[in-house]
Amino acid sequence: MGNVFLDSDRQPRFLDRQTAQRGPWSLDVSYHIASALAEPDRRANERALLSLYIDNLRALGIEPPPWDLAWLAYRRGIAHGFFMWAITQQVHVDMIEVLLRRPGTAAADLDTFELLGVGAR
User: Fold this and answer.
1) Distance (Å, rounded) from C-alpha 19 to C-alpha 54?
2) For the chain, what is the domain count?
3) Which of 36, 59, 109, 120 has the fewest C-beta atoms under 10 angstroms from its C-beta?
4) Stated pTM of the model
5) Could you tell me which residues come within 8 angstroms of residue 36 by beta carbon, excluding any fewer than 6 positions away?
């Protein structure tokens, strides 16, 4: 996606200067997982990746949310990534199609829009 780089210690880092803002952790985590991974990879790994994120918060001395609240926040946060790709104009259309399909599929898989009260009735 172009937002991941390796630091001087060869550790992966994430940077997105286009929309720098303060917000809940779950927006960035869900955005990155749902956009960066193909659907089968996301489905197979998203719970483990979220657990790893939570474990790393704890290792850094940050009290993470309980799993059920973290999973709920992650599922809701998928909508943010879908929206961000829906309004992106400076990326080639073929890439936008992929990066809309991925979080869109995640939203369908995880009942994101229903959780937000905007799903089809």
Assistant:
1) 24
2) 1
3) 120
4) 0.81
5) 1, 4
The distance in angstroms from the start CA to the end CA of the chain is: 34
Residue 16 three-state SS = coil
Chain position carrying tokens 């890439």: 95
Q: What is the mean pLDDT of the chain?
A: 88
Q: Tell me, yes or no, whether 19 lies in a domain.
A: no
Alpha carbon of residue 50 to chain centroid: 10
> For 10, left (φ over 0), alpha (ψ -120 to 50), or beta?
left
Q: Residue 74 is encoded by which pair of tokens?
A: 């992650």
Examine residue 121 and state whether it is found in any structural domain, yes or no: no
DSSP type of residue 48: H
Q: Return the sign of the alpha-carbon dihedral for residues 36, 57, 59, 47.
A: negative
pLDDT tens column, 23-72 = 789 988 998 899 999 999 999 999 999 999 999 999 999 999 999 999 99
Beta strands in 1-121 (DSSP E): 4-6, 12-14
Domain interval for residue 32: 24-113
